[in-house]
Design a protein that fits this description.
Helix content: 25-40%
Number of strands: 40
Structural class: alpha+beta
Number of domains: 3
CATH topology of the largest domain: Spore Coat Polysaccharide Biosynthesis Protein SpsA, Chain A
Keywords: Dioxygenase, Glycoprotein, Iron, Metal-binding, Oxidoreductase, Signal
GO molecular function, one term: procollagen-lysine 5-dioxygenase activity
Protein name: Fe2OG dioxygenase domain-containing protein
InterPro entries: Collagen_mod_GT25 (IPR050757), GT_PLOD (IPR057589), IPNS-like_FE2OG_OXY (IPR044861), Oxoglu/Fe-dep_dioxygenase_dom (IPR005123), Pro_4_hyd_alph (IPR006620)
Distance between the termini: 82 Å
Radius of gyration: 35 Å
Strand order of the largest sheet: 16-15-14-17-25-19-26-23
Strand content: 15-25%
Bound molecules: 2-acetamido-2-deoxy-beta-D-glucopyranose
GO cellular component, one term: endoplasmic reticulum
Number of helices: 18
CATH superfamily of the largest domain: Spore Coat Polysaccharide Biosynthesis Protein SpsA, Chain A
Length: 740
């Protein structure tokens, strides 16, 4: 079955290659003179990248070992092994062992990319005068003792690496047969001993590509290579250069611990990303679900995690609900680890969970730690035989409702939508890792985060929101693929496992998917804690709390309402703001006595006292000041032209409570301000009766106040005013004396 599939794939590739050859047949050399081999047992992300680079340069590798179990020893990355590769190639070369003109090129398959076509590779090979040429590296491996037997070199790397080599068929064949080798023997050791045999080395013209004229092994050389854009006749593409040896390698190998470096280079090399066409590899394998019937759509486990108190969780949940993907194809899994969010989650569950294909919730009462819960969500995906596993943590706001569909269509094993804290460089991926596996910044990180460069990026760490193709999950058990790993937090454990399994993690910024919430200063011991998020989560704060009609205040075709002379009326905040502010004040509860003596004031005396609470009593003074500057000041400058004072100053910011049996009204007075704002926090006729503001000089009253709208008027001299009597209920207003 798998074999049939690959045969099919190769037939398709052949067509592409034929077209390619047709285009580039200016050179007369028979490409058949060269045979390209690799060993791969199954499709991996690395092998797909290899294949893509081969197709890009019209190369058609012969794949050995496909569909067979790996026989070259366990865990080849850390332990010796790989003799099987030699035995496979030996057999394959049997028919060509006397073919003197035939060149053989062998490459590893999972961590290699072609950077050039075969003509260029053959030309470079011929220049070396070698009959057998291997790539070189800086470490003598697997037996460092052999170092002293190696010839000394003047420049470049001294030691043999067996991941990339080429030569004439009879010579390569002879080398493969110079001594028997077991499948589980080490291939690199085998070739090394061959190389160190001086007779054999001389007879075969057996050389190492010390200076990376053709082969670039990256391990130990990552700081010696750079990418640079090279412009040909038709297009620009990124090429690799070795800045130490001044060569341009034609094949690159991410051997040993350099594979994350190859992953980073692979985002650009082999025309994966070019300045003109941008992300060319994005289109590779991409699918289109738009015409797929609902019943045929892949099933998804959507796993939501509330691991820390998070601002704007209600909006987060609405965005989950708004995802454009049929709920009947989604299994919903929720881990809520935060007591504070229980009502939010419960209200979502009560309203919507029934629409999903299935639903499971773990609540704070279950006391299940994060990594266990995340593992359970993987198990849930297995139980439900899901096609995809989609994680969305509570800080991930998916503003783009097509996120899930777009990620599925991207057809990668693991792909994350890029999410960034607005105006910050903090995102849900890392561009590079330090040696110990922690954050390091990649050369292109800022370009990606700021969307100067768009595409699909292979990165070593993602978190918060990502989609996993469950076919991969099903390949491994919980010992290999888990969120639980010593000394790692859950995300790092998962990514570290994926790295070890050679599964690529992509992050996409091809379109805007959403943004990240910053939970750092969120203090749920406060009442209405989201109100305090005006600094750390300004975008979400504005969305929730600024009146949707606020921009209308500046509409040149509209006149600002003026209920009394020089008293303007403008929509400013939402009802939610009003309710939250009242809640903050009532929860605090220490309303002033309404007396002239007031120890909250510097002078200790208030001439016209009200029953009120000051903003600084509830820790909301800095927030209010920034609100004045960002939202009130522009309206002031618009209606009272020519007066600028930025930032506005204000010492008196408070909420007043009018109540028939407490303080129902306020006698006429001037305010000690240049201008005063007065926001109605609740609704006349519903929450209270009576009330309003009367301006005596103009004999003009504003009584039909609108919730969330502010009155803005001069404070002194002209606008002598009084608070009208509240006859029933409670009236709340928010007052600020600006620029006293
Ligand atoms: C996804 O892409 C791979 C190639 O990378 C392709 O073989 C496969 O058919 C694609 N999946 C679908 C569902 O088309
Ligand atoms: C998931 O991955 C497998 C293996 O790569 C692939 O065959 C399959 O098409 C992918 N599933 C979807 C729905 O893209
Ligand atoms: C003020 O206006 C009210 C009606 O709006 C009117 O009845 C009253 O006579 C006016 N008072 C003065 C002093 O003009």
């Amino acid at each position: 079955m798998a074999l049939k599939k690959i045969v099919n794939t190769w037939c398709k590739l052949e067509v592409i290659i034929l077209i390619f050859l047709h285009i580039s047949s200016t050179k007369t050399r028979e490409i058949d003179d060269i045979l390209v081999y690799t060993v791969a047992t199954s499709e991996t992300d690395g092998f797909q990248r290899y294949t893509r680079s081969a197709i890009e340069y019209g190369i058609k590798p012969n794949i050995l070992g496909w569909g067979e179990g790996w026989k070259g020893g366990e865990n080849i990355r850390y332990r010796p092994g790989g003799g099987w590769k030699i035995n496979l190639l030996k057999k394959a070369l049997e028919p060509y062992k006397d073919d003197k003109n035939r060149i053989v090129l062998f490459t590893d398959g999972y961590d290699v990319m072609f950077l050039s076509d075969l003509n260029t590779i053959i030309d470079a090979f011929k220049k070396t005068n070698a009959r057998v040429l291997f790539g070189a590296e800086s470490a003598c491996w697997p037996d460092p003792e052999l170092e002293k037997l190696y010839p000394v070199v003047e420049s470049g790397k001294r030691f043999l690496n067996s991941g990339l080599y080429m030569g004439y068929a009879p010579d390569v064949y002879e080398l493969l047969n110079y001594s028997p080798v077991k499948d589980t023997d080490d291939d690199q050791l085998f070739f090394t001993l061959g190389y160190l045999d001086e007779d054999l080395r001389t007879r075969l013209h057996f050389k190492l590509d010390y200076n990376s004229e053709i082969f670039q092994n990256l391990n130990g050389a990552t700081s010696e290579v750079e990418m640079f854009p090279e412009t040909n006749k038709e297009y620009t593409e990124y090429r690799l250069k070795n800045v130490v040896t001044h060569t341009q390698p034609l094949i690159v190998h991410g051997n040993g611990f350099s594979k994350t470096n190859l992953n980073a280079l692979g985002n650009y090399l082999a025309r994966a990303w070019t300045p003109e066409e941008e992300c060319r590899h994005c289109k590779w394998g991409q699918i289109d679900l738009r015409r797929t019937l609902v019943k045929d759509l892949p099933t998804v486990v959507l796993a939501l995690f509330f691991e820390m108190p998070t601002p704007f969780v209600e909006e987060y949940l609405m965005k989950i609900q708004d995802l454009e993907y049929p709920k009947e194809r989604i299994h919903l899994f929720i881990h809520n680890n935060v007591k504070y969010h229980m009502p939010h989650v419960q209200s979502f569950v009560d309203q919507f969970s029934g629409r999903y294909k299935s639903f499971k919730q773990i609540t704070p009462d279950d006391s299940i730690p994060e990594w266990t819960a995340r593992d359970l969500s993987l198990d849930y995906c297995m139980q439900k035989d899901c096609d995809f596993y989609f994680v969305v943590d509570s800080i991930a706001h998916l503003d783009n409702p097509y996120t899930l569909q777009l990620l599925i269509e991207q057809n990668r094993t693991v792909v994350a939508p890029m999410l960034v804290r607005p105006e910050k460089a903090w995102s849900n991926f890392w561009g590079a890792l330090t040696k110990d596996g922690f954050y390091a910044r990649s050369h292109d990180y800022l370009d990606i985060v700021y969307n100067k460069r768009k595409g699909l990026w292979n990165v070593p760490f993602i978190n918060t929101c990502y989609l996993v193709n469950a076919t991969m999950l099903k390949k491994y058990d919980r010992t290999q693929l888990s969120y639980n790993k010593e000394n790692f937090d859950a995300d790092m454990a998962f990514c570290s496992n994926l790295n070890e399994l050679d599964v690529f993690m992509y992050v996409s910024n091809r379109v805007d998917f959403g943004h990240l919430i910053n939970p750092e200063s969120y203090d749920v011991t406060r009442t209405a804690p989201d109100m305090y998020q005006i600094f750390d989560n300004a975008r979400d704060w504005n969305q929730r709390y600024i009146h949707p009609d606020y921009p209308e205040n500046f509409n040149p075709n509209k006149k600002t309402l003026q209920p009394c002379p020089d008293v303007y009326w403008a929509p400013i905040v939402t009802r939610r703001f009003c309710n939250d502010l009242i809640s903050m004040m009532e929860a605090f509860g220490k309303w002033s006595e309404g007396k002239n003596e007031d120890e909250r004031l510097t002078g200790g005396y208030e001439a016209v006292p009200t029953r009120d609470i000051h903003m600084n009593q509830v820790g909301w003074d800095p927030h209010w000041m920034i609100f004045l500057q960002r939202w009130v000041r522009p309206v002031q400058e618009h209606v009272f032209t020519g007066y600028f004072h930025d930032p506005p100053r204000s010492l008196m910011n408070f909420v007043v409570r009018y109540k028939p049996d407490e303080q129902p009204s306020l006698r006429p007075h001037h305010d000690s301000s240049t201008y005063t704002i007065n926001i109605a926090l609740n609704e006349v006729g519903k929450d209270y009766e009576g009330g309003g503001c009367h301006f005596l000089r103009y004999n003009c009253s504003v009584t039909d106040t609108k919730t969330g709208w502010m009155l803005i008027h001069p404070g002194r001299l002209t606008h002598y005013h009084e608070g009208l009597r509240v006859t029933k209920g409670i009236r709340y207003i928010m007052i600020s004396f600006v620029d006293p």
